[in-house]
Design brief:
Helices cover 35% and strands 25% of the residues. The protein is of the alpha+beta class and 104 residues long. The chain has one domain. Strands 1-2-3-4 form a four-stranded antiparallel β-sheet.
């Protein structure tokens, strides 16, 4: 899902980092800009962007802005993906229908 080497955790103070994996979207962002010592990871289902996803479909967890915190965040993402794999697979299927219906 996420290769830790690709996540510029120091850069999270400036810009959010986002991606997706098999129906599960995620976003990481600092909690207090340049002064931040923590960051929050959000997970939500395909197909919409973070801003368009209903609040009740977004889950979040906060971590220390450090190498250890990033390790914990990535482990949490994997745990959430594996725990709710059916949810993410369903979201991926629904996304395919959404894309198909919008192209007709």
């Amino acid at each position: 899902m996420i290769d830790k080497r690709l996540v510029p955790y120091g850069g999270l103070k400036k810009e959010p980092f986002s991606g997706s994996h098999n129906g599960m979207r995620y976003m990481m962002r600092s909690d207090n800009g340049k002064e931040s010592t923590t960051f929050t990871v959000f997970i939500y289902p395909e197909p919409w962007c973070f801003e368009q996803t209903p609040e009740d479909q977004i889950e979040r967890k906060t971590f220390e802005l450090s190498e250890a915190g990033l390790d914990l965040a990535i482990a949490w993402l994997w745990e959430r993906f594996e725990t709710e794999q059916e949810r993410w697979e369903q979201a991926l299927q629904e996304m395919m229908h959404t894309v198909k219906n919008h192209t007709l």
